[in-house]
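Worked Example 4.2. Read the sequence first, then its C-alpha cells.
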Amino acid sequence: MTKQASCDIGLIGLAVMGENLALNIASRGYSIAVYNRTTSVTDAFTADRGKQPNVVGCRTLEDLVAALKAPRKVMMMVKAGPAVDQLIATLTPLLSKGDVIIDGGNTLPSDTDRRTREVEASGLLYIGTGVSGGEEGALKGPSLMPGGSKAAWPLIQPIFQAIAAKVGPKGDIPCCDWVGPRGAGNYVKMVHNGIEYGDMQLICEAYWLLKQAAGLSNDQLAKVFDTWNRGELDSYLIEITRDIFTARDPGTNDYVVDKILDKAGAKGTGKWMSQLALDMGVPSTLVTEAVYARCLSAMKDQRTRASRVLVGPDMHNRGDTHLFIEQVRQALYASKIASYAQGFVQLAAAAKENEWQLDYRSIAMLWRGGCIIRAQFLERIAEAYDAEPNLENLMLAPYFQKALADSQSAWRHVIASAATIGVPVPGFMAALAYYDGYRHERLPANLLQAQRDYFGAHTYERTDKPGTFHTEWLDLRRPVG
C-alpha cells in the first residue's frame, strides 16, 4: 500500500538512469514514489536496491500521484519521443493546478518548447532538464540543466541542487542552476553532448596518431594520458581513456580496447546539434565531423574491402617520438578550444533566435562536475565569460588567444604530418580550418558569390559601395589567352 501524500517527488521509469536517480534522491533525505509501466520492474527495485523507507513503490500512476505532497512533482525518465507525449496526456488529468511535470530524458529542444506551452495551458508547470553523468553520475551526482516553466524552479530547486554534483574549493557549489525558458535546458544538454562528440573524436585521433604513427604500446599510452590528465587536459574523458588502456580481458589477458570492433554507435544528440547549427547558419564543424567519423566507422565491411585495394603511406612518424607526443598534446588542446568555442557560439545563436537570456558563465560551471565533459578547462571558460559576458567567441578571450598562439606551430605540424603519413584526423583538421577561417578578414566567398550570381542571379554585395548588385556576366566576359 502506498502512503498517502507522503512523498516529495515521483519518478516514472526505472531503467538504469531512473533507478540511480531515485536512489540519489532518497539518499539526500527526500522521499520518492517510483513507478514503472512493467510492474515487475517496480517490485524488483523496491525489493532490492530500493528497499528503504524513503522509496515508495507504486503499481499505478494513480497511486503515484496520490503518494505525492502538493504541489506534486513528477519526473519522467522514459524514452524520448511519442512515449513522453503519451505519458503527459495520461498524467495531466490526474494532476492539479500548479503541479510540475519534469522530463529528464535527452529530448529535442523544440519538443520541450511545445510541451511547455501545452502543459502550461492546462494549468500545470513543465520542466525539461538535461541530466548528464551517465549511470554513476545519476547515482552520485549528475550535472542538471533545467529549463521550462520558471515558476516551477523554486519547487524543484532544493531537490535538484541536493542531488547534483558539487564543485568549488569547499565542494558545495551544485552543478545545477536554472538555464532558461521552454527548451533552453534541453538545448544546453544537446550542446553538451555535441561537444562530447567532438571531445571524444579528438581524443581518438590523438590516440591513433600515438599508436599508429609513434608506435606507442597500450602501457605507454596509459602513461601519456596519465601525464596529460595532470595538466591543461585534466578531464573525465582523458582520465577514463587512461584507464581503458590498462584494462585486460580476464579470459585472454589481451587488452580489451584492442578486441573492440572499430564500429561506433550514436544516439542522436550530436546529429541534432549539427542539424540545428545548419538551420541557423552556425559553423559547428567539430560535432559534424565527429558524427561523420562515426558514420564512416560504421561502414566496416566497405572499409575492409577498400583496405585491400586503396593505397597510401605507411602511417609511421619518423621524427623524435617524445617531441611528437608533446606536439599531439598541444594539437589536442588547441582543437578542444575550437570545439568548445563552436558550442558556445551555437548557444548564443540559439539564445538570440529563441529570445533566451543565457548565462554562459553559469553554463560552464554546470558542466564543471558530474557530466561527461567535466574538465579543469571549464574554469577557464567561466573566467572568460565572467570577464566579458558578451564575448563573441571563446577564441577571442586573452587566455585562449595565447593558448592557441602557443600551440599553433605544433597543431599545424601534427596535421601536416598526419596528412603526409596517411592517418585520418578529421577533427583536428576541422578545428584548424575553423580557426584559420575565423581569423581571416577576407575569405574566398567573393568568388563563390560571383559564381552564384553567374548561374542563378542570386546577387551580391560590394566592398566599395552599399546595396545589392547583379552582373550580366556573359556580357562582360573576355576571351582567355
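Now turn to a second chain, presented in exactly the same format:
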Amino acid sequence: MPDKTIRKEDLVQSIADGFQYISYYHPPDFIKSVYQAYLKEQSEPARNALAQILKNSRMAAMGKRPLCQDTGLATVFLKVGIGVRWDTNCSLESMVNEGIRKAYLHTQNPLRASIVTEPLGSRLNTGDNTPGVIHMELVSGDSVQVHLAAKGFGSENKARLLMLNPGDNLVEHITKEVASLGAGWCPPGILGVGIGGSAEKAMLLAKQSLLEPIDIQELIEKGPSDDAEALRIELYQRINQLGIGAQGLGGLTTVLDVKVNHYPTHAGALPVGLIPNCAATRHISFELDGSGPANFELPDLTQGPEILTKEDESITRVNITGITKDEIKTWKAGQTLLLSGTIITGRDAAHRRIADQINDPEKQSYFRNMLKDRILYYVGPVPRHGKEIIGPAGPTTASRMDKYSDLMLERIGILGMIGKGERGDKTIAAIRSNGAVYLVAVGGAAFLISQSIRKARVVAFEDLGMEAIYEFEVKDLPVLVGVDTEGNSIHHSGPQKWRQFLSKTK
C-alpha cells in the first residue's frame, strides 16, 4: 500500500508554486468571459479598458510577471482529511505562511509585499506578505484540498455586510448596494454573495463563492433549478442594467457572474455578505495525497484571444513635462491621452507623511519644489526584476486619497492626478476650483502600463518601500480624462448614459 504521508516540503512548495502561478496566469474562464464582454461592448471607453485588460493578461502570462501591482493578500482555504498523516513537527499555519513567503520572495518573479503589522499603530510592512489569512476545515478522508486566492484590496475594500430582515427584498438591496460601490473594485469582475448563517458566516460564504468557475451564461441557457440559481440570474441582469461598465466608465458589462452561497440562519434575520472580485481575478486549487507536490498545468497561450488595436485619431499625444494649466484646460472628460515625459508618484503612506509634516515651513518648501505643477500617479509598483526598469505598476484606488485633495491641490500645487475609480464630490469641486485634472489608468493592466515607463528613480521616502515617491519618465502612457478642469466626471456621465440606454432596450 502506497505511503499517504504528506511532507512539509510538498505543502510549502505547492503553495509557493500556486501563488506564483496565479500571479501571472488568469483562470481560463475569466479570460473567456472578459473576451465575450469585449466583443459585445458598445461603449468605446469600456471596450478600450477591456482590451487593455486582455492585452495585459497575455503579456503578463508570456513574461511571467504579475497581472496587477497589488499582488494581493494571500488567502488559503484548507480541507484537511481526518486521516491525513504529516511528516513534520510544524503547525499547519506555519507551513502555509512559509509557502506564502517563498512565493512572494521568489527570485525570478518577486511579488509585492503589502501586509503591514500593527494595523492600529506603526503599520510596518512585514516584507514577505505574511501572514496570510487561513481558513481550515476538518473533513473525512486522507488528503488535503487546498484553494489559494490572492485578493487585491481595491475590491476587498468594497466588501459589504447587510443585516436584513427576513421579508426584505434581496435583489433591491443588493443592487442598490452595488450601485453605491463606485468603480474602485475594478469592474468587470465576479460578485460573491453569501446569505444566511451569522454575520461572519455570510461574509465567508461570499468569499468562498468567488472560488467557483464562471458559468452564468450556461445557467441562463439551461434555466434555474432552484431559488439560488434564479437569484444569480436576476442579480446578474439587474446589476448589468446599472450601466456602470468596465472601470466604471459606462457600458454593458459590470459583472461577469454573480455567485450565491447560502446557509441556515436565525429566524429573526437575513445576513447578506457581498464581496466583489476585480479584473485581477486570481485563484487555483489542488489536492495533496502524499504522492508529492502539486503540478500546475501550463496554459496554451496560443489559444487565448489576441487583441489587435489600431490607434484612433481621437487619441491625443501629450508631453506632460512642464505642462501648464492652460494646456490641461483643453482636455475633456472621456478623452483618451497618451502621456510622455515625467510624472511623480505617491499613495497612502506618502500622502499621510506629507500631511504630518506640511506645517513645517522647511518641509512645505521641500514638498512644493518636488510636486508643484506635476502630475501625481497613485501607484505602489511590484519590485523590479532583472533588466526591468520597474515592476508592474498599475493604478491604485484614487478615492482613498480624496481626503488629501485640498492639501495636494491647494497647498502643494499639483496639476493633476492619475488613479483608478471615481472621485468624491468634494475632490471634484477641488479639482474644478484649482483648474486641475484627474486622469484614469486601467486597473488590471499593470504589466502593460509598466512597459510605458522608461526610467524610474526614488526621490523621497525610500523607507516606505513600494509606497516610496518615485519619478517616472513615461512614453505613451495610456490614460482617460476622468475629471476635467470644469468638473465634468466620466464616472458620472458614462454610467448615466448607458443606464438610460439600457433602460430603453429592456
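Notes for the reader: Residues 153-279 form one domain. The CA atoms of residues 9 and 293 lie 8 Å apart.
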